[in-house]
Automatic annotation (TrEMBL):
<dbReference type="InterPro" id="IPR005251">
    <property type="entry name" value="IF-M1Pi"/>
</dbReference>
<feature type="binding site">
    <location>
        <position position="194"/>
    </location>
    <ligand>
        <name>substrate</name>
    </ligand>
</feature>
<dbReference type="InterPro" id="IPR000649">
    <property type="entry name" value="IF-2B-related"/>
</dbReference>
<dbReference type="InterPro" id="IPR027363">
    <property type="entry name" value="M1Pi_N"/>
</dbReference>
<dbReference type="InterPro" id="IPR042529">
    <property type="entry name" value="IF_2B-like_C"/>
</dbReference>
<dbReference type="GO" id="GO:0046523">
    <property type="term" value="F:S-methyl-5-thioribose-1-phosphate isomerase activity"/>
</dbReference>
<dbReference type="GO" id="GO:0019509">
    <property type="term" value="P:L-methionine salvage from methylthioadenosine"/>
</dbReference>
<comment type="function">
    <text>Catalyzes the interconversion of methylthioribose-1-phosphate (MTR-1-P) into methylthioribulose-1-phosphate (MTRu-1-P).</text>
</comment>
<feature type="binding site">
    <location>
        <begin position="244"/>
        <end position="245"/>
    </location>
    <ligand>
        <name>substrate</name>
    </ligand>
</feature>
<dbReference type="Pfam" id="PF01008">
    <property type="entry name" value="IF-2B"/>
</dbReference>
<comment type="similarity">
    <text>Belongs to the EIF-2B alpha/beta/delta subunits family. MtnA subfamily.</text>
</comment>
<dbReference type="InterPro" id="IPR037171">
    <property type="entry name" value="NagB/RpiA_transferase-like"/>
</dbReference>
<feature type="active site" description="Proton donor">
    <location>
        <position position="235"/>
    </location>
</feature>
<protein>
    <recommendedName>
        <fullName>Putative methylthioribose-1-phosphate isomerase</fullName>
        <ecNumber>5.3.1.23</ecNumber>
    </recommendedName>
</protein>
<feature type="binding site">
    <location>
        <position position="89"/>
    </location>
    <ligand>
        <name>substrate</name>
    </ligand>
</feature>
<dbReference type="InterPro" id="IPR011559">
    <property type="entry name" value="Initiation_fac_2B_a/b/d"/>
</dbReference>
<keyword id="KW-0413">Isomerase</keyword>
Length: 339
């Protein structure tokens, strides 16, 4: 199934619980706003494009559950719910982008029932478009990969981070579909291990060769000449930087040092065209994510912890940005990407 979907019969959200992978594959149902917000905060659903779909479906859920009898009161419920959902994770712009897009679509409504339908349809359209967009990113990005390439990636920018196909891993999938022999090196991505738990799992499902390394091995494998290209996803792209999972910046510096192409694959919905590095809030997560691994204590329980979920990679470290529209090369002109 898709990573996240709207169940038209039960009018609930179905999603793969990514906290259980790779040990258990389980689809859970979110039938109210608080269960959806819990699923987002605890990373049962995660990855910028999947969060966009979650935001849209969150409003579909709100429209379904709301007892509002006028357009004004339904809009009020939707705006309130939108703010609650947006506050769950502040960095990935797709979440607020999708919520704003659905809210915007309500302006076409003539009556309250029509508004409910518009909200659900727009949320479904966002999810559907995500799959199509990722296929286009894949097609554009596949041109950059050669037969025999070893591609390093960080975190999970695959099927599980999107509705389907993936951005960075979508590029790999498209190249493999074109008949190229591509091998992936996945960084484990401490502290929540999206690389070791999710990237390896989903690539192995597709029989795409993958080798797991710790994050701190990336310099070593680059220096040894074992990596041809690096592709990562993005949570938010501003004029000056790319925000992505913590550790991405470190890989980019090492890639520049070793003259390895460093690509970012992302939909235009991940661009913050008005933003810059300083305008963006980087999510700080629970200190216990570093003190414990799988419930086992790995640090003194009272130790001071710094746990930002994302970092910022300056544009000068990026060789190309792959979107659904094109492949862009430096200098990146934000207005050209905006189109
Ligand atoms: O904290 P997460 O797991 O939501 O972080 C996800 C990432 O950093 C991904 O690389 C990014 O969202 C791109 S997903 C196509």
């Amino acid at each position: 199934m898709r990573t996240i979907d709207w169940d038209k019969e039960t009018k609930t959200i179905k999603l793969i619980d990514q906290t259980l992978l790779p040990v258990e594959y389980k689809v859970i149902e979110c039938s109210n706003l608080s269960s959806l917000c819990e699923a987002i905060s605890s990373l049962r659903v995660r990855g910028a494009p999947a969060l966009g779909a979650a935001g849209g479906f969150g409003l579909a859920l709100t429209a379904t559950l709301s007892s509002a009898r006028t357009m004004d009161s339904l809009l009020n419920d939707l705006e309130k719910a939108g703010n609650v959902i947006k506050s769950t994770r502040p960095t990935a712009i797709n979440l607020s982008w999708a919520i704003d897009r659905v809210l915007q679509a309500t302006s076409d409504a003539y009556d309250v029932e029509g508004m409910r339908d518009i909200v659900i349809d727009e949320a479904l359209r966002i999810a559907e478009e995500d799959v199509d967009t990722n296929k286009k990113i894949g097609k554009n990005g596949a041109e950059l990969l050669e037969d025999g390439d070893v591609v390093m990636t960080h975190c999970n920018a695959g099927r599980l981070a999107c509705v389907d196909w993936g951005t960075a891993l979508g590029v790999v999938r498209s190249a493999v579909e074109d008949g190229k022999d591509i091998k992936v090196v996945a960084c484990e991505t401490r502290p929540l291990n999206q690389g070791s738990r999710l990237t390896t799992w989903e690539l192995m499902q597709d029989n795409i060769p993958v080798t797991l390394i710790t994050d701190s091995m990336s310099g070593h494998v680059m220096r040894k000449g074992l990596i041809d290209k690096i592709i990562v996803g993005a949570d938010r792209i501003t004029e000056d930087v790319v925000f992505n999972k913590i550790g991405t910046y470190t890989h980019s510096v090492l890639a520049a040092e070793h003259e390895i192409p460093f690509f970012v694959a992302a939909p235009t919905s991940s661009f913050d065209f008005e933003g810059w590095e300083g305008s963006v809030k980087i999510e700080k997560r629970d200190p216990d994510e570093l003190r414990f691994i799988g419930g086992v204590q790995y640090a003194p329980s009272e130790v001071k912890v710094y746990n930002p979920a994302f970092d910022a990679t300056p544009m000068e470290n990026i060789s190309a940005i792959i979107t659904e529209n094109d492949v862009f090369y430096p200098p990146f002109i934000i207005d050209e990407i905006r189109m």
